[in-house]
Write a structure and sequence with these properties.
The radius of gyration is 26 Å and the shape is globular. The termini are far apart. By secondary structure, the chain is α+β, with helices and mostly antiparallel strands. Helix 19 runs antiparallel to helix 20. The protein is built from 20 helices and 18 strands. A hairpin with a 2-residue loop joins strand 4 and strand 5.
């Protein structure tokens, strides 16, 4: 018995000697777990930008997916190297990229030219449309529930309307070929949907839909868990080419109600909250542990018109709707002056393409009433489809608009919807709906063309079209002469905002966050939440 005890004791000592040093050599990860409370993670239930083209998606993608060309997101939005260390124009149709060496995907594979070519290929992007799919794509289409959504080639067509092919020059060099000259190619390749993905991970996912729920990219964080309408958990990708991520685990949790998000921030339950309306600023700033961060973003709030609706076929009614809106009253009353009315659907960072003298339709109640009277309108109801709170102050804005229209003699009725599928549904006549428009790079192609031209979302759902406008869209994309393009863009604004309104701009979108005061972090006008080591630091408490 004594001998057996000695043997057991020796075995335990030997075991502890073997295990002990290893555990000492591996200290616990001291990086924080950060929780961000959001009103929604994605609208589509997918984490693939080629399907999820949304404001909410913008904030998460940059953490796990990256493009060849990036932008200076916290400063002037100028182009800078991303996964490509450099690029050059071969001619007006061709860009050559030198890829960074040693970039690792989340599955450990090195990024090469093969992955870049695959990222813009038929299996991921085009289906059987512009590009003919190979055996892999055909196999995926045959799997139940794994087919590429029909929206994807349409989104790809807006992203790269004249894309031809990717040429692999060598392991770290590719050439992007376009069918026609395009001065905006560099900007287009910064947009959501142009991110580089792992070819092997896509193949192993077993289908497009399975891939879209667990994409494998190169960003500082990788997807660990995703439950749509509930939570997205990202974990640090310590092999990240840009340096070790400062956060061990990054959580985006769905908290639809503004008051619940604010209370959770004040109590310490959340480290960040999104979409804070100005009337909540004071409570957050009064708290010693929290602060407000944010400002303007490259997005404008719009109303979009369906000219097929019986009461909206006459452009005079749509014009009356635009002139009955007192935009400054909305800016001051609901946003406490924290935003402003822009120069129509354009941004100052368009540079030479920006028309500083252009204005949104003036608030002119007398003109609105006269247009209503001239149209022969007799008070028939006009539906206005509104979501429950996707945009900051969405419902209060809708209620104010209805009263403004009532003053002009227009009978607009709010039709509350639970989601975007219901807002776009055609089971009942569409009239007016809430929307927004982003300029993801510094040219009108990024906004008015992407949203409102032939390939744009508004025309593709059948809400509006205009023959002259469409011809101008084609010319704007094809021309390489700045002055010619400037004149074309001006005429497009005249048609879509004045003569035959497709939409009307309400105000600049702003995005404000509630943030723990001990966190150094700067928001981006691109809407992307950047949690790289260059933009995130927890400040130690002073002793």
């Amino acid at each position: 018995m004594k001998l057996r005890k000695v043997f057991v004791t020796l075995a335990a000592l030997v075991g502890s000697a073997l295990v002990g040093p290893a555990s000492v050599a591996q200290p616990a990860d001291s990086r924080p777990v950060i929780t961000v409370a959001v009103q929604q993670i994605v609208n589509s239930g997918m984490l693939e930008p080629l399907r999820e083209q949304s404001n909410v998606g913008h904030r998460i993608f940059y953490s796990f997916l990256e493009p060849l060309i990036d932008v200076d997101r916290q400063r002037d939005l100028s182009l800078r190297p991303g996964l490509a260390e450099s690029w050059r124009r071969i001619d007006e149709r061709t860009l050559e990229f030198r890829l960074r060496r040693g970039v690792r995907f989340h599955n450990g594979d090195e990024m090469t030219a093969e992955d870049v070519a695959f990222s813009f290929g038929p299996e991921r992007m085009w289906g059987t449309g512009q590009q003919q799919g190979g055996a892999l794509f055909q196999a995926q289409q045959g799997q139940q529930g794994q087919a590429m959504p029909r929206e994807v080639p349409a989104i790809a067509g807006r992203l790269l309307p004249e894309f031809d092919r990717i040429e692999i020059v060598d392991r770290y060099t590719v050439r992007f070929h376009n069918k026609v000259p395009d001065t905006t190619l560099e900007g287009r390749l910064t947009r959501n949907g142009s991110e580089i993905i792992s070819r092997r991970a896509f193949v192993e996912a077993g289908g497009w839909m399975a891939w879209a729920r667990n994409p494998v990219g190169t960003g500082p964080y990788r997807v660990r868990e995703f439950r749509p309408d509930n939570i997205l958990i990202l974990e640090a990708h310590d092999a990240y080419w840009g340096g070790r991520p400062p956060i061990r685990e990054l959580r985006f949790v769905v908290v639809p109600e503004v008051a619940t998000r604010v209370n959770g921030l004040l109590s310490g339950q959340y480290d960040f909250i999104t979409d804070v309306p100005p009337d909540q600023f004071a409570a957050i700033e009064r708290n010693a542990r929290t602060r407000i961060e944010g400002g303007w973003i490259t997005n404008h709030r719009l109303l979009v018109f369906d000219h097929n609706h019986p009461q909206l076929r006459d452009p005079r009614i749509r014009r009356a709707l635009t002139h009955a809106i007192d935009r400054e009253a909305i800016v001051q009353g609901l946003f406490l002056g924290k935003t402003s009315v822009p120069n129509g659907l354009q941004w100052e960072y368009y540079g030479p393409m920006f028309h500083a003298d252009w204005r949104v339709p003036a608030f002119d109640l007398a003109l609105a009433r006269r247009l209503v009277q001239e149209s022969g309108y007799r008070g028939e109801p006009i539906p206005y489809r509104v979501g429950p709170g996707y945009y900051t102050n969405q419902v209060p804005t809708a209620q104010v608009l209805v009263e403004m229209w009532r003053a002009a003699g227009l009978n607009v009725r709010i039709d509350m919807k639970e989601n975007w599928g219901q807002i776009f549904a055609t089971d009942t006549p569409r009239g007016i709906r809430d929307w927004s428009n982003s300029a993801s790079f510094n040219d009108p192609v990024a906004s008015i063309v992407s949203q409102h031209c032939q390939r744009g979302q508004q025309q593709q759902v059948g809400e509006w079209t205009n023959a002259e406008f469409n011809a101008l869209c084609t010319r704007l994309e094809a021309s390489t002469d700045t002055q010619e393009r400037r004149g074309i863009f001006r005429r497009m604004l005249e048609i879509a905002e004045r003569e035959d309104p497709a939409y009307t701009v309400l105000h600049r979108s702003v995005l404000y966050y509630g943030v723990r005061r001990d966190i150094e972090w700067t928001y981006s006008p691109t809407q992307a939440m950047d949690f790289r080591a260059t933009n995130f630091r927890v400040v130690p408490a002073s002793r």
